[in-house]
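Need tokens for this chain, all 484 residues.
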Amino acid sequence: MASVLDRDPAFENIPSIKAKTLRINLNPDIYGTFSEIGAGQETARNFFRSGGASGTIAKAMSAYDKDFSDAIYGVEKDHRYVTQPRLKKMLDHEMQLMEERISRETHPDRLFFSYANTVATIDFSKRYKGHGWLGIRYQLDPHQKDYDEIVLHIRFKQNEARLQQETLGVVGTNLIYGAFYKYHKPRNLLKYLYDHIDKDTIEIDMVNFSGPNFKEVDNRLMSLQLIKNDMTDAVMFDSDGNNLLPATVLYKKNILALRGSFRPVTKVNLDMFQKSYDIFRRDPAVDPERTIVIFEITLSNLKAAGEIDERDFMDRAELLGELGHTVMISKFQEYYKLVEYFNNYTKEKIGLTMGINNLIDIFDEKYYRHLSGGILEAFGKLFFKDLQVYLYPMKNPDTGQIMTSNNVKVHPRMKELYKFFKYNGKVMDIIDYDPEIMHIFSRDVLKKIINDEEGWEEMLPEGIANTIKEENLFTKKLVKAEKG
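Here are the structure tokens for all 484 residues:
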């Protein structure tokens, strides 16, 4: 059997799409189906054009008519077609047909695969650029009982349907090639998805790896790669570590976001969340059933000495997940950019929970010098919609004074601007805070953990200290860096 693990240097040095498709077509064992809905059969077309496709393509199909599509794959509960559940049904159906119609006795060495995509390209008014789901379910060993699977979501940035179709064909080809020949290096596989594609043509905002050959892959780290590689601006994952599509999670939702380092998450962080959420959900405009709470970390907050410490990232993510929270990693250092991002997906109420220092930073002009309209342009984007800031107080370590929205000191030039937003109810104090925990700061807890000091355990939510000790979080890489 010609193994897919064989590395052919001649092919590796030819990065063309034709070389990729030909390498797959000339492998006598790789055999599967293509099902593409919504943007033509562009991926299959690449394989047909390169030659030798008869030994690779069992079937290529498109079910453009919705009635035909429903007859084949079933009707979705929400009657939508460009969704992850739809993609999964396509992969299920086509792989089942492969297993039923291709005899293992006749073809014992065949490596089955099913590639599918369901896509909506740009509309006639050009208001919606389009997006799509694509994925591959496949084998790397004919005796493999459980299939491997890679699923990703893309957003188009081009303004012409034909160009989007061509781009989709290239991404699909890169995915299939990477699945068979770069599966052992999933980080590189993600980068290779952009082979022959400019990064300003598509955005990849979600990816999930699953199956026996990806059992060591943590999809949260794969999400982080999308951010690091400038493939997207924000990624999300749930408390179980499963990657989420931000557009789906945020769509038409009320959003309460709490930004922080969470290094580690403390009692203050939870008090900020709980007290602000109580205020948020009591708002008559807020439907608690359509509300999402997000613990958000900026990319700059993850960087240490210019590089992202992935171990440190995973430690934070694990603790937030243990507490049952949805986590978002974003590139938005400024709050107005974060709010702009949310406004892409919802017109409902948005709340930002923050401390005094964060509020002072918002009113610092230096963060807006790159904008032609300066701080006024930023504030127009930040407070334009139905947004409210929930402010957690802080005790002045020198005077013991409790700092709130009433006595916070912003730059003299910003005083009147601050008063305007304060008067119009855009800033609301959290008044039922816990005064017994105001001395707790994540940086102090982290220092105690690293220096193996006592007394940090009671500063954290119940159970978190035990997890940190049992799994040796926030120590291994940080201690190593100290010694270096």
